[in-house]
Amino acid sequence: MDAMTPEYNRSKIHQHKFALWVGIGSIIMMFGAFTSAYVVRRASGNWFEFKLPDIFFLNTAVIVLSSITIHLSYRAFLSGAEKRYKGLLVTTFLLGIAFVVLQYLGWQAMTDIGATFTVNPSSSFIYVISGLHAAHVLGGLGAIAVAMAHAFILPYKPTPRRKLRFELVVQYWHFVDVLWVYLIVFFMVQS
Amino acid sequence: MAQVVTAVEALEEKYTQELGFDDHFHDHHHGDKFQSNFLTHYIFSTDHKMIARQFLITGIFWAFIGAAMSIVFRLQLGFPEADMAWLRPILGKWIQVNDAGIGKLDPEFYYALVTMHGTILVFFVLTAGLSGTFSNLLIPLQIGARDMASPLLNAFSYWAFFLAGVVMFLSLFLSTGPFSGGWTAYPPLSALPQASDGSASGMTMWIVSMALFIVSALLGGINYITTVLNMRTKGMNMWRMPLTMWAFFVTAVLGVLSFPVLLSGVLLLMFDRSMGTSFYLSEIVVGGQILDRVGGSPILFQHLFWFLGHPEVYIIILPSMGIVSEVLSVHARKPIFGYRAMVFSILAIGFLSFIVWAHHMFMSGVNPFIANFFVIFTLIIAVPSAVKVFNWISTVYGSNFRFNSASLFSLGFVSMFISGGLTGIFLGNSAIDIQMHDTYFVVAHFHIVMGIAAFFGMFAGIYHWFPKMFGRFMNETLGKIHFWGTIFGAYAIFWPMHYTGLAGVPRRYYSIDNFESFKHFTDLNKFITVAAIVVFFLQLLFIINFFYSIFSGRKMTVKNPWGANTLEWTTPIETGHGNWPGKLPTVQRWAYDYGKNGEEFVPQYIPLKEGEHDHGH
Question: Which tens digits make up the pLDDT trace of A4-47?
Fold first, then answer.
């Protein structure tokens, strides 16, 4: 009978982590739909070409940097370097806010060159897609705020439960970073 | 029978003690604190069984509203001359009484009724009411889990659905009426508030409601997928799962992949409506005024909508297919025929559902060469569907079949699925669709294949798992009257629509009696309406039976009344939080050992005998 019973490997992946991945899958589908809509709409003509303001590239550097800092913070959390863990977490949070602010300045720069929200779908799409991405970044900032509360209010103790919670935040933050890199490359290739 | 079952319960006790998996669930006092009083037990519960019942009862409420709406517009279609003044107390100003004292249904409101009927039935009843109910009830019970992966998100899923319902319900009372541009919400009708009465606040509320509904569907789907993949008990590998689990799992995958696409489509629509963008709008004159929006493409919305819309019909039908497979096998006392073929056909249907969406758009100006691609894949769906039908028939064939309400509705499902599926082969051809599209032929097709069929699967599930949900049985006599009346009635409603549709009678029209060419259908239309009213009252019989049986039905005295193999019947009659009082049962075999080696049924927790082969893998 034992030979017939398969290996019992319950909880190999924690269910909350797996649920996060499935959720990320659905967010990917939403942005996939937006970018497909962009391609389809562009192909049907009456499309107003313009150059993306440079501020969006600065933006990209900021969010990539924040991904690195949160990763180092997680490593410090695991290895017991409490100070480094807290410092890098705060840095990540500030970089995240900087990203949202730069995003806003980017939209202003677009409006300044006449690529307003309603002038043509080519600019409307950029506002909508980057705006929705920024909303997901704000969600991530909320999660980082909770992680900071854990870091500064609770005593430092890398229990499996706290490790998991922090890991969920880190993975989501990496996701919004990769998503933005995809979007900026997509906009560059398209225009 | 009773003694056999008691012996089975003794065996079950023995095997749970010997082989059960101790997850120390009851060592910690948790969970029960959520169910301490009426509010937390019945209203804000995080227990999957309670959430399942919430979904079901909310679904029944919406089914009643949606069906009542169809009766009102069927009265208009069947008896256009009749006086509807008696509906004034309910519909108020939507019934216009003329000088002669004859009440007429307002044409704008007719469109609103058709739109709401579609939206409510497709999303609130056959998505939330069906997969919300049975995925919640059965996934943890059948795979041997204490609850969902995230009980809290699961409760949020119900409450998002509830709020979506509240918003939609309130929109029915707007002075401009609810949205009236069809459940597909095509722009420009949906994108311009000035396009019609229903396109004003009604459409805004429709969008808000749908956004909440999508949140609900996603939270539910994420939970179902994670639970099936991560929370199975020891020994329950994928190939030992009952077909219900496979069906609900693939349904959830389809939902998680397709609902976000609808959300993006609807978001763009929202910007077109309120922020002045032109994603979908171009060169339109509305109300004699030239609109200053250029460059949008209404076809883009159709692509985004149907990329959800087509998987959506499988989100509706797959849970019913799973339920029917399980119910037929249990009541035929035979293993399901071709278990692996059933699983692969579910997967194939799930995959194909994503590459056929444009068959809804053959007449929207899609390039005929692209249409060819969609025709081919649409017709290929007939293959896994036929495999399933063949397997259901083979499962029942030559069996010692138990005819009860649950199994009859399962047979009814197979009948409906065949009848409706065949007309799908007509409509899947882009050339034939030129004649058929937007006629009653389409109405007949989708109502039979996904409306009635999905409802039959749902009824089969309700009659079969009612004892698990409420500890009592539904009345069998009423159930059988409900079945025979509904199957004849449903065919009486939709069969004639094939003829009117072939003759070209267009759907969604307020009145077809002023076309000379359709005059001879007047009596047929009356017949359809009368049949619809009869079927409507039969469903009231079901609702009475349902609520009466919750409180006063025959009590369930044994744990496993149907003699089924799956794990949900090993839980106590009054299933508490955590589902199993002690250890979790472990799984030793697949779910379909019926009539094996002279034994009537061998539940999943019984170890394989020396030299016995497990069919599951």
Answer: 333 444 556 888 899 999 999 999 999 999 999 999 888 877 88
Check which CATH number belongs to the domain holding A143 and give it: 1.20.120.80
Contact (CB<8Å) A33/B265: yes
**How confident is the model over B42-93, as pLDDT tens digits?**
778 889 999 999 999 999 999 999 999 999 999 999 998 889 989 999 898 9
Pairing between β-strand B594-596 and β-strand B599-601 as defined by DSSP bridges: antiparallel
DSSP string, B381-412: THHHHHHHHHHHHHHHTT-----SHHHHHHHH
> What kind of fold does domain B2-280+312-601 have according to CATH?
Cytochrome C Oxidase; Chain A (1.20.210)
Alpha carbon distance B413, B424 (integer Å): 16
B400 touches chain A (CB under 8 A): no
B33, pLDDT greater than 60: no
Cβ neighbours of B231 in A, within 8 Å: 10, 15
Whether A91 is covered by a domain: the verdict is yes
CB proximity under 8 Å: A 10-39 to B: 10-11, 13, 15-16, 18-19, 22-23, 25-27, 29-34, 37
The domain ranges of chain B are 2-280+312-601
Give the Cα separation of B190 and B236 in Å (integer): 48
Test the B interface: residue of A17, A30, A107 with most B CBs within 10 Å: A30
> Is the residue at A34 inside a domain?
no
**Is residue B617 predicted with pLDDT exceeding 90?**
no
Q: What is the mean pLDDT of residues B401-410?
A: 96
Q: Can you give the pLDDT at residue B29?
A: 52
Of B222, B264, B275, the CB nearest to A30: B264
CB contact under 8 A, B153 and A19: yes
Give which of B204, B188, B181, B364 is closest to B285, Cα–Cα.
Answer: B188
B31 vs A55, which has greater pLDDT? A55
pTM of the complete model beyond 0.90: yes
The verdict on B22 touching A (C-beta cutoff 8 Å) is no
Within-domain flag for A70: yes
Cα–Cα distance, B38 to A150 (Å, whole number)? 34
| Tokens coding B501 | 């549709």
B229 touches chain A (CB under 8 A): yes
**CA of B138: how far to CAs of B15, B228, B304, B568, in Å?**
22, 11, 32, 7
Q: Mean pLDDT across the stretch A49-65? A: 92
In this predicted complex, what is the ipTM?
0.89
State the total domains in chain A: 1
Q: What is the DSSP annotation of B84-136? A: -GGGHHHHGGGEEE-TTS-EEE-HHHHHHHHHHHHHIIIIIIIIIIIIIHHHH
Range of the domain at A111: 59-190
- Report yes or no on A23 lying in a domain: no
Spatial distance between the Cα atoms of A170 and A168, rounded to a whole number of angstroms: 5
- Binding-face residues of B in 434-473 toward A, CB within 8 A: none
The answer to whether residue B152 neighbours chain A at the CB level (below 8 Å) is: no
3-state secondary structure of B595: strand
Per-residue pLDDT tens digits for B246-272: 999 999 999 999 999 999 999 999 999
